[in-house]
Design goal:
Elements lengths: L1 H7 L3 H15 L5 H31 L6 E2 L2 E2 L8
Length: about 80
């Protein structure tokens, strides 16, 4: 089910972008203020989407243990020091 969610929503970004362009082209008097509102809504939408997709991928990967990894985290990653 979770894998299906990841695959099924793969075209969301393209579809949303095309929709925004279409709305902007059809609206008369689309202002900078309008663009700022659209940008704010899309930023929140995409940040939420990124977070959810990361959690889903991590959950799926956690169910399939792999040496050196805890889910999507590489356990052999070292902290960078100057």
């Amino acid at each position: 089910m979770l894998r299906f969610i990841l695959q099924d929503n793969s075209e969301v970004i393209e579809t949303t972008s095309l929709g925004v362009v279409e709305v902007r082209n059809r609206m008369k008097g689309f202002t900078l203020k309008d663009q700022q509102v659209v940008d704010k809504v899309l930023n929140e939408f995409y940040l939420s989407r990124i977070g959810l997709r990361f959690l889903i991928e991590h959950h799926i990967t956690s169910a399939e243990p792999q040496p050196g990894f805890a889910g999507t985290y590489n356990t052999y990653t070292y902290k960078y020091s100057n």
